[in-house]
Amino acid sequence: MSQRSGTGIKLFFLMTGVIITLACRVLFPAPSNTPISEPSPKTLESPFISQPTPTIRPTKIRTPLPSRTQIPAFPTDMGAYTADILNACTLVQTGEVAALFPNPPMPTNELKKESGYTISRCLYENDEMRLSISIASSPDFIDSLTEDLLNMKQVPLFVQFSASGANIYQASAPNGYTHVGVIFAAIIIKDNTAVKIIGSGKSYQYHAPRETLFVKALAGRLPRETIVFNACNLVTMDEVAELFPNPPKPINELHREEGTSYSTCSFLDDNMNLTLGVKLDAESARGLTESMQNLMKETPLVTEYFALGADIYQWGGPNDDTQIGEIFMAMIVKGDTIMEITGTGVSYQYDEDRETRFVSTIVGRLP
After folding, report:
1. Fewer CB within 10 Å: N-end or C-end of the chain?
2. How far apart are CA 332 and CA 350, in angstroms?
3. DSSP letters along 117-156, please?
């Protein structure tokens, strides 16, 4: 066997080992051991779960404000302003909170680490009131709100509407925790980002038109998603066809393992197989960089280059595993985003310049 082929075999197994190891960490990560402080049973994070379905008429539990109360203006158009996904307090202004809960305290922002995503919670709390606003960008976070949504829909004051491209669910019911006053709750869902709002106070009175304006204002400030949940959006059919003629239609899949979401896009038929996988994970990004740097010390066939803020590792050549066609691989680290591209085909031949252009184009579409 030629020296190139032998080197190709060695590299293939090295790359395979890296990919398998990384796949276990990137695509099937171990559960996080980060301790998480859970809210006490008396907090307002799930206000309707233990709440029996009211049997009285909505007009009996409605507690409108006095007619002299003016509905405040909550600006929905703040120019180019958007909130910070890691600071839920940037979704709301203290003056706006004061329209619902007079004299609110200064808020605190808390970050709660889940496996694969982070929840930011803005909390206004004192002896008189409590308002919690949580935000995260993850399908798993949205799934965690399913039970809340189902229970909210059983409340007579439940309403559903849309604003700023988001679906909004809003409700109020007697406070099932303190049995004093009412609870105001809302859930905003836009694409893969969700906001959960829970509020209650000793003198708080629910006023649906006012709270609706409040929630709409928050929906208009949702930040742009920084996670790719559809990897097929990163590449076009024409771009794939330059490497693999007549590619099949792609299949996008959103995988979930132990609370972690990641997306893959696969072009697969009897003649070729091209798969793109992408995930946001800071720990895996650091691990991938370290592993690839070690691999480069063992083989000169892996090339490293930088493009559009990304560190890219690329390799291609004979497919010593099947002896049919050639193989192409790329590993990408862009901030906390990691991406893996693997391709092979019966008639595929690796072209480093062409594949470098292909990868760089995809990198330019990463958040």
Report:
1. N
2. 18
3. EEEEEEEEESSSEEEEEEEEE-HHHHHHTHHHHHHHTTST
- SS3 at position 29: coil
Confidence class of residue 71 from pLDDT cuts 50, 70 and 90? low
- Cα 302 to chain center, whole Å? 31
Across all residues in the chain, what is the average pLDDT? 79
Angle between helices 282-298 and 3-26 (to 10 degrees): 170
pLDDT interval class at 280 (50, 70, 90)? confident
Confidence band for 91, pLDDT divided at 50, 70 and 90: very high
Contacts (Cβ under 8 Å, ≥6 apart) of 260: 29, 115, 116, 117, 140, 279, 281
Name, in order, each residue with C-beta under 8 angstroms of 311's C-beta and a sequence gap of 6 or more.
289, 304, 332, 333, 334
**Residue that has been written with the tokens 């808390």 in this structure:** 110
Please report which confidence band the pLDDT of residue 121 belongs to, taking 50, 70 and 90 as the band edges: very high
pLDDT(24) > 80: no
- Predicted TM-score (pTM) of the model is 0.68
The full length of the chain comes to 367
- C-alpha angle 104-165-144 in degrees, rounded to nearest 5: 65
On the question of pLDDT at 57 being above 50, the answer is no
- d(Cα 350, Cα 342) in Å, to the nearest integer? 12
Residue 32 scores a pLDDT above 80: no
DSSP state, residue 366:
-
Q: Do 179 and 227 form a contact (C-beta atoms < 8 A)?
A: no
List C-alpha distances in Å: 7 to 11, 89, 233, 305.
6, 55, 35, 22
Q: How far apart are CA 156 and CA 64, in angstroms?
A: 15
Q: What are the phi and psi torsion angles at 26 (to 5°)?
A: -85, -50
**CB-based contact 10:1 (threshold 8 Å):** no
* Cβ 348 vs Cβ 325: under 8 Å: yes
Strand partners, 182: 174
How far is the C-alpha of 181 from the C-alpha of 212, rounded, in Å? 19
CA-based nearest residue to 342, from 253, 261, 264, 241? 264
